[in-house]
Design goal:
The complex is a heterodimer. Chain A is of the alpha/beta class. Chain A has 11 helices and 15 strands. Chain B contains 9 helices and no strands. The chains are: A alpha/beta, B mainly alpha.
Chain lengths: 290, 212
């Protein structure tokens, strides 16, 4: 059973459209949702939380198709938003007192453990905390009610490198029992390089691919070579291409094709997720004079 | 049902510190000697109610309530239910200040227990108009709605004062002749009940389809 299934999701806003997006968040795994800013990641996540309703398609949570208001399913979700959504004028203690009763499985000891681990002062007002501390508090809440699914929207944005690494270790810990599932959206793809099992890539409101991270990295090829190797037909085969006066660097969808076309003539490397996102988002129009 | 209670509790905790600003309000009203019991009791309840609604919708905090395992229907109903504790808080403060005014020898008007019923009714009336507008306009219009409704509360309180002088039913109310005013009051009570139910249904519909 999947923790989440997004089926043919469509949503139209002024100047933006999600179009037929289908993917799964598999139980017991970490799924990374990647894409440039404004690609539709947060909208998809808000649909899972029933904050936004799709115009087309449907969402399934824990095998149940969402119809009406499935409030009880949100009790099984730990949600971490990209921005603090807590009441800023309250202290952490009072905020916790407000939200804890809503969760039947709230574990005060676990919560206190995270407050200590993250060095969060419970008598401090939320508005007095840094962005990183607000994120830590949000994380402490999400991890304190035995959530089966953690949905994290850009949790590492604005965090210092030390805590970013700690957070990734913490998520890797959480997934150990294989009961929990994690959906982690980020445009900082280095984070997902480290921990994700599956990658879902959306760009301009469309699904580009949904695969295991290893398969994505092995399948794509980053080709670097001299300009003389390119002609119009070859340029068309690249997902994204960056040309300079010195040469070119481009992403191809199939490693086999890249080796067939450029083997021995150009350097063929395994791209990082960041390079895949960059070239896919930029397309073939990039030309740099260097 | 538990969730609605927790949501009402949340609303009270959100405005906890604002209760402190009621002290100068009452002190001013008592010494100015220009207020009726209706204003004494209505204003604080409405200040707290509208403030809690405002806090709940600004700066992305809507996402907090939307992330809780609580349905939007329960959330809307809790807003209507929160009128009750806020009115009780207003009434308690009013009674205490009336008593204090009496001890200090300050004339603060006549206090009758059955006026409390009128305060509950008027607060429910204002909330029934306020909440559908609140859910319809959402975060963008909330500050305007807040100001308009605070003015409305003052206007309604003043209007009631005027009715007291000119309406036979209100005169009977004032004269403690409740039984003779009963048919009119019963009709008003039923109309209010219908209004509250219709208002809640409309608010649920409006908030139910809103993206947050």
């Amino acid at each position: 059973m999947n923790a989440v299934r997004m089926e043919s999701i469509g949503k139209r806003y002024d100047g933006f459209e999600l179009n037929g997006v289908t993917f799964d968040v598999r139980k017991g795994f970490i799924t990374g949702l990647i894409g440039p800013n404004g690609s539709g990641k947060s909208t998809l996540i808000r649909m899972m939380m029933q904050m936004v309703r799709p115009d087309q398609g449907h969402v399934e949570l824990f095998g149940r198709r969402l119809q009406g208001d499935a409030a009880e399913l949100r009790g099984k979700i730990g949600y971490v938003s990209d921005e603090s959504y807590f009441y800023e004028h309250l202290t952490l203690k009072r905020m916790k007192n407000i939200l804890a009763p809503f969760y039947g499985d709230w574990n005060e000891d676990v919560f206190r453990g995270y407050l200590d681990r993250f060095e969060l002062p419970e008598n401090k007002k939320i508005k007095e905390l840094s962005k990183g501390m607000k994120m830590k508090f949000s994380l402490a809440v999400a991890l304190s009610h035995s959530a089966e699914l953690l949905i994290m929207d850009e949790p590492t944005a604005g965090l210092d490198p030390v805590f970013r690494r700690e957070l990734l270790d913490l998520l890797a810990e959480q997934i150990q029992d294989e009961r929990r599932s994690i959906l982690f959206s980020s445009h900082i793809t280095n984070d997902l390089d480290r921990i994700a099992d599956y990658i879902v890539f959306v760009n301009k409101g469309r699904l580009i691919f949904e695969e295991t991270k290893d398969a994505v990295l092995e399948r794509h090829a980053l080709v670097k070579g001299g300009k003389e190797l390119l002609d119009a037909d070859l340029r068309a085969l690249f997902i994204g291409l960056r040309e300079t006066d010195m040469g070119f660097e481009g992403l191809m969808k199939e490693r086999e094709s890249a080796e067939k076309l450029f083997g021995g003539l150009a350097l063929i490397e395994q791209p990082t997720l960041e390079e895949i996102v960059y070239y896919t988002a930029k397309g073939k129009g990039e030309r740099v004079h260097a | 049902m538990h969730s609605v209670v927790y949501l009402v509790r949340k609303d009270i905790l959100l405005v906890y510190r604002y209760i402190l600003i009621l002290f100068p309000f009452f002190a001013y009203m008592t010494f100015a000697q220009n207020a009726s019991f209706l204003i004494y009791a209505m204003m604080p309840a409405m200040i707290l109610f509208i403030t809690s609604c405002t806090i709940d919708i600004q700066n992305g905090t809507q996402r907090f309530t939307a992330s809780l395992p609580v349905s939007r229907r329960q959330f809307v109903l809790s807003k209507y239910a929160s009128i009750l504790p806020f009115t009780v808080i207003g009434l308690v403060f009013s009674v205490v200040f009336y008593l204090c005014a009496g001890l200090l020898g300050i004339e603060a008007g006549v206090f009758r227990a059955h006026d409390m019923l009128a305060v509950f009714g008027l607060n429910a009336l204002v909330a029934s108009i306020y909440l559908p507008v609140y859910y319809w306009l959402g975060p963008k219009g909330i500050q305007t709605v807040r100001i308009v409704f605070m003015i409305l509360v003052i206007f309604v309180s003043t209007l009631i004062g005027s009715l007291v002088q000119n309406s036979l039913t209100m005169q009977r109310w004032i004269d403690d002749d409740i039984w003779r005013a009963a048919p009119t009051l019963l009709t008003a009570g039923l109309a209010l009940t219908v209004l509250v139910i219709a208002s809640a249904a409309l608010s649920i519909k409006l908030y139910g389809r809103r993206d947050v």
